[in-house]
Every structure is written in C-alpha cells, then in structure tokens.
Known about the structure:
By secondary structure, the protein is mainly α. The protein is built from 7 helices and no strands. The radius of gyration is 22 Å and the shape is globular.
Amino acid sequence: MLHNGFFIGCVLLWGLITMQAGGADASPLVIDPDKQWQYAQQLFENGRLAQSAEEFERFAFFFPDHPQRRNAVLSAGRAHMLAGEGGAALQNFNSLVKNDLTDPVALEAYFLVAETHMMLGNPDQAILHLSNLITL
C-alpha cells in the first residue's frame, strides 16, 4: 500500500515538473488596451462588479499614459460602489478629484464621492464634500 502512494506521488511530481518546463517556452503574455477595456466593460455589464473593478484597475496600472486611464479609474470606482465596496470606491474617486476640476472626469468623481458617502450612511460627509466643490 505504501508503494502505491509513493508511485502516485512520483507521477504527480513528474507531471508538475513537465508542465512547468513546457510553460517556460510559451510566448509572453501581451495585454492589449482595447481588449482589456472591453473585458472590464463586459464584466461590468454582466454584473460581475468586483472583477470588473479589478480589470479596470489593471488597465490603469498597465497603461498609465493611455488617454482612457482616468476613465478606467472612474469605472473601477463605479464598479466598487455598485458592488457595495464603498472604501475601495472612495480610493478610486479621491485619486481623481485631486486634479483640476475643469476636467470632466474629476468633476464626475467629485459627485460620485458624495454619492458613495450617502451609500455608506454618511450624509454629513457627502454634504461637506459637495459644499467644498461649490467653493472651489
């Protein structure tokens, strides 16, 4: 009986080693910004909000100079907010409101910060945030 377990263990170990060796010759993974955006958007539309947020954040990470980067961060925040992950949503939104408020993405993020505070049951914080926006 001990021999059978040892034999099975050796076969499994051999399988793991050969799979790793085969993977070493594989071509590198190339991430395309358009496909990444479409994938994140598809997840969002299918209600897979947490995964969508991760994929939008991945877009922003891998393509920091892409023209859609700020929209990706905004979309990640929206997905987090709709998934009930207010803290993560606020992180995304707050990273965008630090910029010039003539930027439409920053302005939308400002309103979404207030909406997220309302969702989290912090109406005073939401009002304060909107009051700050008015004074800017």
